[in-house]
Automatic annotation (TrEMBL):
One of its GO terms (molecular function) is transferase activity, transferring alkyl or aryl (other than methyl) groups. One of its GO terms (cellular component) is chloroplast membrane. Belongs to the UbiA prenyltransferase family. The chain crosses the membrane at residues 37-54, 66-83, 95-115. It is found in: Plastid, Chloroplast membrane. InterPro entries: UbiA_prenyltransferase (IPR000537). Pfam families: UbiA. The keyword Transferase applies. It comes from the Eukaryota. It is a multi-pass membrane protein. This is Uncharacterized protein. Keywords: Membrane, Transferase, Transmembrane, Transmembrane helix.
Amino acid sequence: MSVFAFVNGLLKDLPDVEGDKKFGMKTLCVLLGKEKVLPLCVNMMLVAYGGAMISGASSSFMINKIVSIIGHGILALILWLQSKKVDLDNFESTFGFYMLIWKLNYVEYILIHFLR
């Protein structure tokens, strides 16, 4: 869950980099650029989903294995596919992706109960 909170903190600045630059905010998006921060965040989340799938696969309960592997696999696929559609120059596109990350986090709050 820490990875997801960290990614949320980084991606919240993605839609308004110009405003952050204007007011002298030194966010990662301003320092590195949107083009580098988006794939960094997506890859961090994909690694976290992979780790959750491996952790779920080691469960002694079959239902936990199934739900963890399939659930996190679906979330990873959604994340990866949607990240390819983001137009970094469009506020609605970047904000929509940021809101998708929140939705994926809410689903993770359900799936985390199957990691034992």
